[in-house]
Amino acid sequence: MTRIISIANQKGGVGKTTTAVNLASALGRSQKRVLLIDLDPHAASTSHVWDGEPAATIVDYMENRQLLEDCIFRTDDGYVDYIASSQDLQDYISKMKNIHTLPEKMLSIVKMCESKYDFIVIDTPPDFGVLQVNAVLVSAEIIVPIYEYLSVPGLVALKDMITACDQVINLGKGRILRMLAVKADCRTKLSRNIVQVVHDNENSLHTVIPYNIKLAEAPAEHKTIFEYEPTSKGAMAYMQLAKELINIGA
Fold first, then answer.
1. Which whole-number Å values give the CA distances from 91 to 31, 128, 167, in the listed order?
2. Res 117 pLDDT > 90
3. What is the pLDDT of residues 145-184, one digit of tens each?
């Protein structure tokens, strides 16, 4: 059964895209079939894995200009398929006349892809707008990267959103929110305290993603951490995260 995971937080700069891209790659390198969907108009995931303009994006599918299969591309490292985004996505949302169109399109993507992939990972914008809501709507698991206390308060709103989504579309069981400690420098008391806050929450992930400059450098080269610096602490941590998630579903 396909596991659909949204990476979400209402705050920017917390490592959503870094987590989406490198988790997807780690899962692919663990012999899993993976689709990465960039649902952020800033298209950071797209830029992370692709140098240049993609031939088609998710907007082309949503506006019925392209078939879904024509909007799915393979990353250069060969481990992940992805659906690109662009700034046109924000224009599409602002002009959307029927509020049911987006959830119908997202559900259709899931329906057409679920037999082809073990995991679908969705990168979302840094807000609780319509795009993030619809990502959560089709996801059974939501990973929330946390690296500072300012990232924590939005969890209440996110939990409320998940409850609302459970009432709209019942996936057979409640959606699971998984907190993930990222950018951790456990030499500092602050960072250790934040990791403890994360781990004190039910369903939190035990893996801790450390602060690692190589993770910050890789996007500029349009590479995953495994291509850019495969022996780095960041690469090892995301591989451990992939193994943890696979074991959770075993």
1. 37, 17, 29
2. yes
3. 998 776 666 677 787 787 877 777 666 567 899 999 999 9
Q: Scan for tokens 């369903």, then name that residue.
A: 203
Residue 166, beta-bridge partner list: none
Highest mean pLDDT among 92-96, 198-202, 229-233: 229-233
- Distances from the Cα of 111 to the Cα of 105, 107, 150, 176, 192, angstroms: 10, 6, 36, 20, 41
Cβ neighbours of 15 (radius 10 Å): 22
- Report the alpha-carbon distance of residue 238 to residue 124 in Å, rounded: 19
Rg of the chain's alpha carbons, rounded to an integer? 17
**DSSP structural state of residue 100:** T
Q: Which residue segments constitute the domains of the chain, with CATH numbers given? A: 3-248 (3.40.50.300)
Mean pLDDT score, 141-145: 94
Residue with tokens 């409320």: 160
- CA-wise closest residue to 84 among 74, 71, 94: 71
| Residue 100: both structure tokens together | 């049911």
- Between β-strands 81-83 and 72-74, what pairing exists: parallel, antiparallel or unpaired? antiparallel
Phi, psi (rounded to 5 degrees) for 120: -120, 120
Average pLDDT over residues 68-84: 95
E strand spans, the chain: 3-7, 34-38, 72-74, 81-83, 119-123, 141-146, 176-184, 208-210
Residues 137 and 151: their CA atoms lie apart, in Å, by: 21
Count other C-beta atoms under 10 Å from residue 125's C-beta.
Answer: 23
Pick the closest to residue 122 from 100, 141, 104, 103 (CA basis).
141
